[in-house]
């Protein structure tokens, strides 16, 4: 993938940080001695045109560079420099590589706007593509394939094919990438000129960058079939032997190929994993994730070996996560969270590595708290709950909310931790801080639904909580608990009576619904104290037509109670018993996690969604599309190609 697609790895908070950093760099450039990004003045284009034509400037390479730097600088700022097209084309006639690079960059940008002069540009680049200097040939080939002009195909086919066999590795690696441009212009050329075979043969090239580019282009041309072409044992061994020569991007490409290879037996599998073990200690997170992907996919059906692999990759992941940048930590935490959901026991002993640090940005804190929830177990929940409880009083209200919710989820997930979690929530309610109380009340609902027999100490603080909470979600939770445990809270009828008086105000519809149900529940348990309150509420609710659902529900309760009070009590009590649950369904299904695990090491894990949920269908279909259907898995052309069309 190119750098543009790689940038998608970062979520919106990280993108904002990157843009801020980029803006800071821009200020540094503005203040540099070169003075490229100064205010553009009227009449400067004629001045630049005169300088580019000045023979004295041509004789001074440094001065000529400064002039061209100004042109490219204005171009990058979005200022129209197309009037200088002729002069910049003439500037390519130099032996100075720096000047050539800037001239080629300019031509690539403005060739489509100067249709009349485009042929002159192409002729110049074709001439440079035959230059004796390999750097010039490579640069000219890259620029030639970057042009967006009509009828470009007939001008670049021969230079590209010639470049594939060039003696210089720089030219060859550029030519390999230009094959993709040929496919974009006319895919039939790939078939007619047998370019898939040529690219496949370049997997044996001695230059490491040519090898990496060839793998990338072969996958882009042939998709899934291109992957199959490289999965023979001989090819996989050859790629692994050259792994250390490649840069990080090349290593990730090779490891991507190897991850699809199925060893013939356990001995071959262990040999590959032993060879790749050192990649787990690499300083680059992308290489480590690619190596882990190989280990996990190869041992997926091996049972105990797969679990041992998870234990083996634990240390490299934690080391990179704790010692890397926040961006790296975010991506690694996403993958650790996926593995922790798959096998919580693997990271259970390393829970302390995921404690939140003051220097962590908010998105990293969020993920660390989510990982701690997954790692909580009967052996470590005390320390985990203590750490989360310390974060509740944080100045960051979002972190406080996440910590309270995490305490509640741990209490639900780990039965032995329920009592401790309720104790922490009870202390939060006793503290009386409005924001903390709101979060604690909202979280307590699930705990008391799961463990109703342990709700007693928590109910003592409900009357005080009514005085401080303001959010609709927290008030609805309080009303639900009053209705469910009305017998245990002495003040329940009087608290509900106060809320009934507010019915005509700006009360949220959710709170109204819970209030109606809670009053009926308490009335069934304490009829003498609730009779008048319930009567007023039913009258108001039946007459209120602002919400049809509440109107119909109030009418149902009224008719049920007036028809048969004993039967009404049975119906209400049955509903109260149904509110308690033995377990809660997980937010993510096993099928969803397996889909993410299949895409381990990709953006799917970062987004938390399988590829089909965020990629365009055309991009997914491209992986299944085959440019040359005549190529089999061995890379041999099974059908003779058509004769090439005459130029």
Secondary-structure topology with pairs:
Elements: H1 3-6, H2 12-30, H3 44-53, H4 55-58, H5 61-76, H6 85-90, H7 97-110, H8 115-128, H9 134-146, H10 153-164, H11 169-185, H12 187-192, H13 195-201, H14 208-229, H15 233-241, H16 248-258, H17 266-276, H18 285-298, H19 304-323, H20 326-342, H21 344-347, H22 362-375, H23 381-391, H24 397-413, H25 418-431, H26 434-450, H27 456-459, H28 462-468, H29 472-484, H30 492-501, H31 509-525, H32 527-543, H33 548-563, H34 565-578, H35 590-598, H36 603-607, H37 611-614, H38 617-624
Written description of the protein model:
With about 650 residues, the chain is mainly alpha-helical. Helix content is about 70%, strand content about 0%. It contains 38 helices and no strands. Helix 8 runs antiparallel to helix 9, helix 24 packs parallel to helix 26 (about 435-450) and helix 33 (about 550-565) crosses helix 34 (about 565-580). The protein is elongated. The two termini are about 35 Å apart.
Keywords:
disordered C terminus; mainly alpha; 38 helices; 69% helix; single chain; disordered N terminus; 0% strand; elongated; 647 residues
Tell me the structural class.
mainly alpha
Give the radius of gyration.
34 Å
Poorly predicted ranges: 1-38, 640-647
**How large is the share of residues in beta strands?**
under 5%
Mean pLDDT: 84
User: What's the story with the biggest beta sheet?
Assistant: none
Helix content: 55-70%
Q: Figure out the total of helices.
A: 38
Q: How many angstroms does the end-to-end distance come to?
A: 33 Å
Number of strands: 0
Spatial shape: elongated
């Amino acid at each position: 993938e190119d750098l543009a697609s790689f940038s998608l790895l970062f979520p919106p908070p990280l993108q904002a940080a990157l843009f801020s950093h980029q803006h800071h760099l821009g200020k540094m450039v503005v203040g540099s001695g070169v003075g490229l990004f100064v205010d553009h003045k009227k009449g400067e284009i004629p001045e630049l045109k005169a300088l580019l034509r000045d023979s004295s400037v041509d004789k001074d390479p440094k001065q000529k560079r400064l002039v061209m730097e100004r042109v490219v600088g204005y171009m990058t700022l979005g200022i129209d420099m197309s009037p200088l097209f002729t002069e910049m084309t003439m500037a390519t006639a130099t032996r100075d590589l720096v000047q050539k690079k800037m001239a080629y960059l300019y031509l690539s940008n403005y060739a489509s706007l100067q249709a009349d002069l485009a042929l002159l540009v192409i002729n110049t680049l074709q001439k440079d593509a035959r230059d004796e200097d390999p750097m010039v040939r490579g640069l000219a080939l890259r620029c030639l394939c970057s042009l967006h002009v009509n009828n470009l195909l007939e001008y670049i086919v021969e230079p590209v094919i010639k470049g594939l066999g060039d003696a210089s590795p720089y030219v060859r690696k550029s030519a390999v990438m230009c094959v993709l441009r040929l496919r974009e212009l006319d895919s039939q050329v790939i078939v007619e000129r047998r370019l898939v075979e040529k690219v496949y043969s370049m997997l044996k090239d001695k230059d490491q960058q040519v090898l990496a580019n060839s793998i990338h282009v072969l996958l882009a041309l042939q998709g899934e079939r291109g992957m199959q072409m490289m999965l023979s044992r001989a090819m996989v061994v050859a790629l692994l032997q050259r792994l250390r020569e490649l840069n990080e991007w090349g290593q990730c490409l090779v490891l991507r190929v190897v991850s699809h290879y199925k060893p013939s037996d356990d001995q071959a599998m262990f040999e590959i994993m032993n060879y790749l073990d050192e990649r787990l200690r690499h300083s680059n997170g992308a290489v480590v994730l690619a190596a882990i992907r190989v280990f996990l996919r190869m041992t997926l059906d091996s049972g105990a070996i797969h679990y041992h692999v998870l234990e083996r990759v634990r240390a490299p992941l934690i080391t990179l996560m704790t010692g890397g940048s926040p961006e790296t930590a975010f991506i690694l935490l996403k993958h650790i969270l996926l593995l922790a959901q798959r096998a919580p026991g693997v990271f259970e002993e390393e829970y302390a590595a995921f404690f939140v640090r003051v220097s962590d940005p908010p998105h990293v804190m969020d993920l660390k708290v989510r990982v701690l929830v997954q790692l909580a177990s009967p052996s470590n929940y005390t320390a985990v709950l203590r750490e989360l409880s310390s974060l509740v009083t944080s100045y960051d209200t979002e972190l406080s909310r996440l910590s309270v919710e995490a305490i509640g989820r741990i209490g639900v997930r780990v039965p032995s931790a329920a009592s401790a979690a309720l104790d922490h929530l009870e202390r939060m309610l006793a503290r009386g801080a409005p924001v903390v109380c709101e979060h604690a009340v909202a979280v307590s609902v699930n705990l008391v639904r799961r463990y109703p027999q342990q709700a007693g100490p928590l109910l003592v603080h409900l009357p005080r909580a009514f005085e401080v909470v303001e959010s609709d979600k927290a008030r609805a939770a309080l009303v639900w608990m009053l209705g469910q445990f009305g017998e245990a809270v002495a003040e329940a009828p009087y608290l509900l009576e106060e809320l009934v008086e507010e019915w005509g105000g700006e009360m949220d519809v959710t709170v109204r619904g819970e209030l109606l149900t809670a009053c009926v529940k308490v009335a069934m348990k304490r009829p003498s104290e609730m009779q008048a309150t319930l009567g007023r509420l039913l009258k108001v609710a039946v007459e209120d037509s602002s919400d049809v659902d509440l109107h119909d529900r109030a009418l149902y309760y009224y008719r049920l109670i007036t028809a048969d009070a004993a039967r009404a009590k049975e119906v209400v009590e049955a509903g109260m018993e149904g509110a308690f649950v033995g377990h809660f369904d997980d937010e993510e299904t096993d099928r969803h996690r397996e889909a993410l695990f299949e895409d381990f090491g990709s953006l799917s894990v970062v987004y938390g969604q399988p590829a089909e949920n965020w990629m365009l269908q055309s991009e997914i279909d491209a992986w299944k599309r085959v440019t040359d259907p005549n190529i089999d898995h061995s890379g041999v052309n099974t059908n003779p190609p058509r004769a090439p069309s005459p130029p």
